[in-house]
Design goal:
Blueprint (H helix, E strand, L loop, with lengths): L1 H15 L15 E9 L2 E3 L3 E4 L7 E6 L4 E8 L3 E10 L2 E7 L4 E15 L2 E13 L5 E11 L1
Antiparallel strand pairs: 1-2, 1-10, 3-4, 4-5, 5-6, 6-7, 8-9, 9-10
Length: 150
Amino acid sequence: MRRGLDRATLVILVCLGPGCATTKLAGSASTSIEEARLSVGDRHYQLDSCSSGDLEYFLGVDLADQKGGALVRLVIDPIDGPRLAFVFREDGAGRRLVFRRDQCSQLEAAARYTGWQVNTVRDVSGFVDAECRSDEGQAVGLHVRFSHCH
């Protein structure tokens, strides 16, 4: 009789353990992009979506102007720090610019995992403040704050 009680107690304890418990976290994981200003020469873009670099196995984020056809990739290199790549789809053609730190008068950026995970993709928040000039003299400015990109 004592043995049956022990098994019942064990089953209850197992079900009350982490396998049966759920945790609710305060806050929300809704994506937001604030202060999103991207200018290339005299053209301006409105960044309206973001996705975690975790989808493509890098620390960083992809930011996009879905209507204007601009894509910005921020990659945080563990040795060299932040790097930026821009792709512009004007008239169907894709023009690409990649910037190193020495091409920018200002390049400050961060992308940090928030601790949230959505469908195995780690959620990222951070910022970019950049003023750069390509080798051809093309001026690019990017100032954006993003949170919960997944």
